[in-house]
């Protein structure tokens, strides 16, 4: 499956990460592309409403919310996780972008 970003903000977020963190994000995206639906913990976790969370850990905990649609993987939102739970605003933004696909 091919990975696509739904918003330029996601590409910019990844490009602006420190090189070490960016490399981990790109490796995890490669895993997602290879294993798609079969990728599980610790790299991926199912959320609700057909959304998934890509989990990149390290000094910074990066989260990328994504979905599967039309034979592709769409990256909907990316952020640095600072709390135990995903904030409602982050989830709402991902849901809004997901609604543009369907």
Provide a descriptive summary of the structure in words:
With 102 residues, the protein is an alpha+beta fold. It has one domain (2-101): RelE-like (YaeB-like fold). The chain is built from three helices and five strands; from the N terminus they run E-H-H-E-E-E-E-H. Strand 3 (52-56) and strand 4 form a beta hairpin. The chain starts with a strand and ends with a helix. The mean pLDDT is 93.
Give a quick set of tags describing it.
single chain, 102 residues, alpha+beta, YaeB-like fold, 5-stranded mixed β-sheet, 38% helix, globular
Provide a quick synopsis of the model.
This protein is α+β, with helices and mostly antiparallel strands and 102 residues long. It has helices at residues 8-15, 19-35, 88-101, and strands at 2-5, 44-46, 52-56, 61-69, 72-81. The model has no long low-confidence stretch (mean pLDDT 93).
Compile the SSE list and pairings.
Layout: E1 2-5, H1 8-15, H2 19-35, E2 44-46, E3 52-56, E4 61-69, E5 72-81, H3 88-101
The number of distinct helices, counting runs of at least 4 residues, comes to 3
What is the number of domains?
A: 1
Major β-sheet strand ordering: 1-5-4-3-2
Elements, N to C (H/E):
EHHEEEEH
Structural class: alpha+beta
Please give the CATH architecture: 2-Layer Sandwich
Report the biggest beta sheet as strand number plus sense, adding barrel if it closes. Answer: 5 strands, mixed
Average pLDDT: 93
Give the overall shape, derived from the CA principal axes: globular
Q: Please report the first level of CATH classification, the CATH class.
A: Alpha Beta
The CATH fourth-level homologous superfamily: RelE-like
| CATH fold-level assignment | YaeB-like fold
DSSP strand content: 25-35%
């Amino acid at each position: 499956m091919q990975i696509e970003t739904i918003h330029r903000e996601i590409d910019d977020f990844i490009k602006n990460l420190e090189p070490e963190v960016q490399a981990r994000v790109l490796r995890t995206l490669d895993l997602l592309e290879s294993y798609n639906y079969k990728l599980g913990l610790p790299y991926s976790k199912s959320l609700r409403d057909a959304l998934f969370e890509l989990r990149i850990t390290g000094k910074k905990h990066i989260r990328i919310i994504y979905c599967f649609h039309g034979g592709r993987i769409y990256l909907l939102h990316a952020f640095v996780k600072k709390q135990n739970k995903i904030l409602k605003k982050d989830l709402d933004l991902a849901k809004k972008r997901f609604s543009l696909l369907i």
